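Our collaborator T.R. sent over the components below with a one-line note: 'Predict the complex.' Nothing else. No constraints on interfaces, no templates requested, no preferences about which chain binds where. So this is a plain run: every listed entity goes in together, and whatever single assembly comes back becomes the starting point for the next discussion.
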Amino acid sequence: MKVYNFAAGPSALSDEVLEAAKQQMFDFAGTGVSIMEISHRSKAYDAVHNECIALIRELMAVPDNYEILLLQGGASLQFEAVPLNLLVKGKADYVVTGNFSKKAYMEAIKYGDIVCQATSEDKNFTYIPDVSEIRFRQDIDYIHITSNNTIFGTAYKKDSIPRTDAVLVADMSSSILAQQADVSDYGLIYAGAQKNVAPAGLTVVIVRKDLIGHEMPLCPTMMKYSTQAKNNSLYNTPPCFCIFMATLNLRWIKKCGGVAAMEEMNTLKSDMLYDFIDNSAFYKNSVVKKDRSLVNVPFTTPSQELDAKFVKEAESAGLIALKGHRLVGGMRASMYNGMPVEGTKALIAFMQKFELENK
Amino acid sequence: MKVYNFAAGPSALSDEVLEAAKQQMFDFAGTGVSIMEISHRSKAYDAVHNECIALIRELMAVPDNYEILLLQGGASLQFEAVPLNLLVKGKADYVVTGNFSKKAYMEAIKYGDIVCQATSEDKNFTYIPDVSEIRFRQDIDYIHITSNNTIFGTAYKKDSIPRTDAVLVADMSSSILAQQADVSDYGLIYAGAQKNVAPAGLTVVIVRKDLIGHEMPLCPTMMKYSTQAKNNSLYNTPPCFCIFMATLNLRWIKKCGGVAAMEEMNTLKSDMLYDFIDNSAFYKNSVVKKDRSLVNVPFTTPSQELDAKFVKEAESAGLIALKGHRLVGGMRASMYNGMPVEGTKALIAFMQKFELENK
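Returned assembly:
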């Protein structure tokens, strides 16, 4: 049975990427050994490491005045690394649009004068606050947003991100490489890799060079962007296999037509699913339409009992990891780059069948 | 051509472990998807995660009053995590026996009254200081040692570690699972996984429970042992694939007879090589005999020119990654658990041939 994996992260990788990894398990790039066994100071590894960085630069059109860092610790470590590295005046403004967004804010308040300027928690994060109405403070080091909220299925759109003179920082863990972003809109972008970049264990940071090197004295050496930038992210042993997988995945994205093609495919999939839900009296998505995520689609049936039945029967039909997050309930279909259009079609076909049998 | 990989880390994995990973690339534990694609909150992943911890506990005979944490960031992040978590009185003593040992000390001095009580830097780290002669301070939070010095090929032996009332902390990155250690001798053990445990990207911390929860206020949340212990190392997405590989490797170690069997095999390999070097007028190892490492064997030929020739010709013969670290020069054969006895034999045969051709 073909299995389609709707996990929110770690999430589906393209079969082609997994196949390439499988084929090289005992012989990476003609070395006669696995990528997992070779030194991170070897020429063979160095080529992969630099290709990974170059492909991120190419696919995201990262300008030359930005460093691309390959780190560990996930977005959660960046929740603290960001204020530790960027707070110079000691002030930053946050917009809180979900669980991780709130965590980022709660970590930052330990390090300076941090203000949450807007939150959508009043309606269980089912919308993105209108940032054009927010009076962000003057003389702040940065504004922090979370571009896509995995749990709640909301996202900023190109025209809804804050437009101010302040440095904009975004957690793009669930939108990086899935939709286009103009890097020059941001001072810093960070992302855990496990949704669209690579298996869990890699964190990508894209940071404007002039923002590097002003760390607070208490910032641990390993968390300093300057340490990592100076050493091309090879200050200590990097997560080599994850970076290798990222490189395979980036090659695949490039071959498919780049991030624009990914966005087009992701739009097609989520539009299909949103349209189906909106035209159904049985299924419901509670997110404000203009703020809907391109990759995470939460939905419910008329009852919690049916939700549970849905998840169970879907799994038996090979549609796995559809259970919604406990903070939202119901179901959630995460459809990142690795999810083929056929997977979304299979989900919709199952939803039709389930509705007929249970309404 | 059979390739034997003498890399110091990341380093050789058993073919059996790589084969198991390859076989499950598209279907992990009957899920129909790769371990790289499934949620870290799923039952299937949870089983691997807990098996990994249970196998470390079993194979290292870790007592119940110790937590086993699966983290990211490498030993380098622990250089700061250790003082941030353990300094309560604010004082610790370090013994410096190599490059990483010194880095650990240099990071720690930022956080308290830290004294380097002994160093072997006077003789380029070719010996382990006699710790029985050191007067460690009273009222310190811990003593820090590096159990095996990868670059210099030295190691503490069971009877040469400090025996005091103080909490003993050891960086065991290159000796963990390669030789037996009595965990109860230590308050905390940490290790980057990329030599004997798993591919790079995982850090193992084994810490006595009473030492958890006294973090300095400035310790980042992600670096707090209490955060990770409370969440069974699932506070955020862990490096799932590395943990899966660790589990496969731990199963293999168990099947081979456990850490005792690994130590026996590693002793056999390094004894063979040391004996050969000691009986040769051509090759030389500069380490004080009683302090020689079980897993890292540095050696030289009579000249730098011949060293370079040796490394090049060895590589052509399928004996790769033998170039010594720049701080030592010459060659270095790292022979961790993943190196079969045949690999050491092949190296010695090559060394004999090279000597005949070049003396």
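Summary for T.R.: Chain B touches chain A through 61 residues (CB under 8 Å).
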